[in-house]
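Notebook entry, structure prediction.
Reason for the run: the old model in the group folder had no record of what sequence produced it. Starting over properly, with the input documented here first.
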Amino acid sequence: MKIAVIGTGTLGSSIAQVFSQCNSIEKVFLCKGRLESKKTGLESITKAFEKLVTKEKFTREQADSFLSKIEAGEKKLAVEADLLVEAVAEDLDVKKSVFYELDEICDSHTIFATNTSSLPIKVIGEGLSRPIIGMHFFNPAPVMKLVEVIATDKTPQKTVDYVMDVARWIGKTPVEVKEAPGFVVNRVLIPMINEAISIYAEGVASVEDIDTAMKLGANQPMGPLALGDLIGLDVVLAILNVMLNETGDNRYLPQPMLKKMVREHKLGRKSGEGFYKY
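New structure, fully documented this time:
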């Protein structure tokens, strides 16, 4: 089985890493989403495997074997894939343009999946010659066990079943979800993070105390503000805006402090500062 992952950023690279560790998968094509991108993704995957070898999670031979499966390059590599997972920027126009290009070059048997965290999958797939499905991984992909498998009303059940099986082959637990704004996890999680930001903005409690309260009072492994930093506050804002636009429900209205922090490029871990400094 051959997999193509489109997008060489943090999540795309980590998804490719996960696929490379599966014995049933012989080849992983890691393709740039944009021609001008300088990232191949291989450097971050190599570093990840180095850490895993150091921690004795894998042997050197296993890590080298996994890395040897990965071929990095342009999108034309995807023509050989049985399953293609798009993981480019969370931007509707960008995703649509990527799929239009791939639809022209990929064999008709290649299954198209998008890793969108909130965008309408049916709209992403408009105008394509084949149905599309959501395969939503969570960051960091090698650690997080869940994959949301999202079908539109155009997605054949055999495609859903196939993608569910693939998720299990790579050691994940898939849940089947019908298309809806935010799907399951983000529909619950993102408004919680937004509410935690409101509590902090109102001066009710400090960042640390809000996170401690939710960890100890709700048995969460990570507080909502630390989690927002991990996800990326720009991503949190984007998901809220999508859910607000899709539903018109003001409970998804982004907190002004969140918008201000994103404008100031305080995005969380990836920028070095969010609600915490890194």
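Summary: The first helix runs from residue 10 to 20.
The old model has been moved to the deprecated folder.
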